[in-house]
Amino acid sequence: MITEEDKKIVERISGPIADIIAFEIQSGNMIVEVSEGWPLPTANEWFKLKFHKNYKRMYSAIEYHKTNDPHYWFGEYFDKSKGFFVGTKFSSSWNCNNKIWGYLARGFIFISLIYGFFESTIEI
């Protein structure tokens, strides 16, 4: 849960990292963790889902690293000149959509089997 103190840290952010945060929130991503001091000194945020875009192409002033370390996080953008960092956890909307489609497909198969069973046992 994001606290009032966390919101104050997020409000300090400007420039490309602020744009990334705004776009990710607008795209349905949510901030799940906020800190100051580590890994960068001023403001650090982590999103629940992986980034929706490749922002490095849009902003030459920031750096991107695919950390891909379960002890830390999946990916990160940072602006060393301002001390701003934004990272993502390991969830992705693509995986969530795959799970939803998987459940729907299993449900459809189940309904098809039931319908086939009843169709073959009941004469109309």
What does this structure look like?
Helix content is 40%, strand content 23%. It has 124 residues and is α+β, with helices and mostly antiparallel strands. The protein folds into two domains: 4-91, no CATH class; 93-124. A five-stranded mixed sheet has the order 1-2-5-4-3, covered by helices on one side. Strand 1 and strand 2 form a beta hairpin. The radius of gyration is 21 Å and the shape is globular. The N and C termini lie far apart (57 Å).
Question: What is the domain total for the residues?
Answer: 2
Mean pLDDT: 80
Widest β-sheet, arrangement of strands: 1-2-5-4-3
How big a fraction of the residues is strand?
15-25%
Q: Low-confidence spans: pLDDT under 50, at least 5 residues?
A: 93-99
Coarse shape: globular
Helix count, DSSP H or I runs of 4 or more residues = 3
Task: Specify the helix fraction band.
Answer: 25-40%
Q: Which class best fits the helix and strand makeup?
A: alpha+beta
What is the string of helix and strand elements? HHEEEEEH
Whole-number radius of gyration? 21 Å
- Spatial separation of the terminal alpha carbons: 57 Å
Tally of strands: 5
Major pleated sheet? 5 strands, mixed
